[in-house]
Amino acid sequence: MNPIKEFSIGGPCSSSEHCMPPVLPRLPGAEKMTDKRNYFIIHAPRQSGKTTFLLSLG
């Protein structure tokens, strides 16, 4: 039986627990930049998925 997924209202999202779109396609090229050890900045409003995105890179 599949558990019911909910929306996260605080903190990072987990695709197994929360309703969420795919994370990595939002910033194409970020994986290449981290592989090359380049720097980049993520600037976005609060609760827009910044932490969830960075956790998915790891």
Distance between the termini: 29 Å
Poorly predicted parts: none
Helices, by number, come to 2
Strand content: under 5%
Largest beta-sheet details: none
- Please tally the β strands and state the result: 0
Structural class: mainly alpha
Question: What radius of gyration results from the CA coordinates?
Answer: 13 Å
Approximate shape = elongated
Would you tell me the overall average pLDDT? Answer: 83
Share of helix among residues? 10-25%
**Order of helices and strands, N to C?**
HH
Offer a quick outline of the entry.
The protein has 58 residues and is an all-alpha fold. It has a domain at 24-57.
Describe the overall structure.
The protein is mostly helical. It has a domain at 24-57. The chain is built from two helices and no strands. The protein has helices at residues 30-35, 50-57. The chain is elongated. The termini are far apart.
Describe the secondary structure blueprint for this structure.
Elements lengths: L29 H6 L14 H8 L1
How would you describe this structure in keywords?
elongated, 24% helix, 58 residues, mainly alpha
